[in-house]
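Researcher: We are triaging several targets before committing to wet-lab work. For this one, the compound of interest is flavin-adenine dinucleotide. I'm pasting the protein sequence and the ligand SMILES. What I need is the predicted three-dimensional arrangement of the protein with the ligand bound, expressed as structure tokens, so it can go straight into our comparison scripts without reformatting.
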Amino acid sequence: MTRHVVVVGAGPAGLAAADAALGAGARVTLVDEAEQPGGQYHRMLPEAYAAARPERLHHGWRAFDARRRRVLAHPRCVWWSETAVWALERPDPAEPGPPRVHVLRGPSDGGGRDRHVLHPDALVLAVGAHDRVLPFPGWELPGVFTAGAAQALAKGERVVVGDQVVVAGSGPFLLPVAASLIEAGSRVREVLEASTPATLARGWGRRPWELAAQAGKAAELAEYSALLARHRVPYRTGRTVIEARGDGCVEEVVTARLRADWSVVQGSERTVAVDAVCVSHGFSPQLELPLAAGCALRATPAGEFVEVDGDQRTTCPDVYAAGEITGIAGAPAARVEGALAGWLAAGGDRNTVAVRRLRSSRDQGRAFAARLARAHPIGAGWSGWLRPETVVCRCEETDYATVCRAATDESTSAPRAAKLATRAGLGPCQARMCGPTVAEIGARLRGPGVDSRDIAGLPAPGDDDHTIAGLPPASEHRRPIARPIRLGDLAATPETTATTPETTATSPSNSLTEESSS
Ligand SMILES: Cc1cc2nc3c(=O)[nH]c(=O)nc-3n(C[C@H](O)[C@H](O)[C@H](O)COP(=O)(O)OP(=O)(O)OC[C@H]3O[C@@H](n4cnc5c(N)ncnc54)[C@H](O)[C@@H]3O)c2cc1C
């Protein structure tokens, strides 16, 4: 019988998964809340723009475009754009198989969206990551953007966030952001990488021959660096934005030199006049759907990610994970993981040469993720930038002093109690932005010797202090409702006969070529 594979997310990982699953003969339902496939890396302009050169600001456009067309036109594929998965429902223990997939179809802020429930034979989760941003005084001023948002506006709307911009934070992502801003018409005053030269050298310089496998990424970085040089944009390391100032909107930023632990070198402060600042301190994987499915997570120095085996299988039966939810390694690695996950979820042969090659590329991607995490760690000294009144949770306007008080008071230090006491994480973003920050502040204040589970706000294995009978362990990523749903939509009877892509005469291609994963 033809397997029905549901792929959630049509970014580099999800699109590759759909392509490979179709190649293995499955019926595929590909869903994404965006209007077009591409995810963050290939964020496309809306169709209404009828862009003459949609490939501007993109890398690897031709391969992406060919894959996009192949997948969307495939007779065994159903493509559902503007479709959000808002919940996963685990089947009865007696019922085998992956969770049911609850989706809402229609523009994300529209009313009367259609509700459907999908019953896949296998599920591939490829929902990506979102920006991680550390707070600093003034970060709530208009004109302060996450680098991802600035990038999304530049790539997806051709809108610039300002004329005079500083890009700051940590990680290679700062470079494409600065490049997109320049290409879209901003003047980038400087790009500030918080990692010190010594940390960068330790992370990137170790076993340099391993980087040969990432030649494409190196070429991309070289291109960005050349663009910055042409526009005389300084790229400074060991320096960051520690404050934004302005009357009603950002007018200047204070930058400072940092030590390896990101504490400020006193006296190194400088002010730069800007009308916008873009900050990024890495990415947080979107883990609510994997958690809802029941997938185990693994703790790493860079945070928690979905645990997968050598076949991209999660710990939940027939649920696969690919891309940035399993580790932050960039679009090429996400594509490889997606291809592997899609092929195997569809029941493709595990032992072909192509699958072996994909596994080895995937391992290189994981090594790259570890290197990235080593070169761009968040230094523990960043909380020294904060003042008692600095807002930490922007949705609920919870300040640093309140978070500290809750963390050091025995009765409110457990994650759930801290949330209720401070309201941090209870607003519209549901802790997507402030969750890691609050968890980290709490763990540091609770004392030395914290491990990465503590940093993530999770109880250590066997530690019952923070668990409540009948409730799953606290996690900053646990959101049973992954996307907002109106009560009217929730009350509507869902369609259950959702996707029946036509069973067609097209036969599976029995090979998974390297080309389809490139
Ligand atoms: C804002 C942002 C901008 C970025 N820009 C760049 C860049 O320009 N260059 C670069 O090298 N790297 C960029 N990155 C890093 C980038 O995320 C990865 O390298 C790459 O895109 C990861 O691929 P992915 O398929 O794992 O995830 P993504 O590309 O993030 O794709 C995930 C897809 O899942 C969809 N999705 C998520 N949740 C749901 C849901 N509940 N229901 C339905 N659909 C859902 C999203 O709409 C998205 O299309 C960016 C990251 C972010 C967060």
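Researcher: Any quick observations?
Model: The chain is about 30% helix and 20% strand.
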